[in-house]
Amino acid sequence: MMYPFLTLYDNTEIVHSEMKPDGRVKVYVEKPDDEDFFHNAVCWIPGYQWEDNHGFTQEEIAYYEEVIRSTAHLILEFSQRGGFENVFQRQQQEAKTSMNNLGTQPLQTERLLLRRFRPEDAQAMFDNWASDPEVTKFLTWPPYKSPEDVRRYLTNLAGEYQQEDRYTWAIVPRELGQPVGSISAVHQDLRVNSVEVGYCVGRAWWGQGIMTEAFSAVLDFLFDRVGVNRVTAQHDPENPASGRVMAKCGLRKEGVLRQAARCNLGVRDVVCWGILRSDRPGGNYIV
What we know:
The protein is α+β, with helices and mostly antiparallel strands. Helices cover 30% and strands 32% of the residues. The protein has an eight-stranded mixed beta sheet with strand order 6-7-8-9-10-11-13-12, with helices on both faces. The chain has a five-stranded antiparallel beta sheet with strand order 1-2-3-4-5.
């Protein structure tokens, strides 16, 4: 869970996560650049170890560390209490759910293998989509600068796969044998057994039905094996191709939230889609 904390004079945003069992807190620093992309980095407190720096100079990191050090006592206190979202998080923890979280299990379709990412996927992920500004244009993270940065992310992800509610698949065409995109459950609401799905795929594989095939397999898994009642997805109004994927997978357009999300283009409208278990053939949700 992420908690907003500070917005600085240069539009840099500082947000933080809940306190980890070992007492540490992950602090994210994010700043838009002149081309409406984002520089970002992570600082762990206490200790002030920095990682995943994308675009900041050492002088900027030193300045942000001063800001974080001066407010660390508040960040730690809010993180321990659950930040401004503590009520929601408590409801999540106390929610009675019929969902059967299974973690990221391998899924197979006619053309694809959906599997967990591995650190050795770093070069393929960098080459095939993660370094491409056109692919990341509507996403919340900027293009990666090097395969080493991707490897660090994938190494962290390998540890997160131990969590049964972590769903992030590499999309691997069988004939190619390497990842060309990803699809994830980016948010869960246990109070209503709902999951939001996000995805991206490299430009070389656009228009080939790859994402429709992958999303359909994930929907089957979430509804039939995990037992969710509702799956949602969102896209930018200037990215209608993503909406066509959602429509082909049976989701219904539910509306537009104005100026409701931030991506690499800035604050944007989002088009919202959703599908219920009861919308699917034979679907019957039981509380």
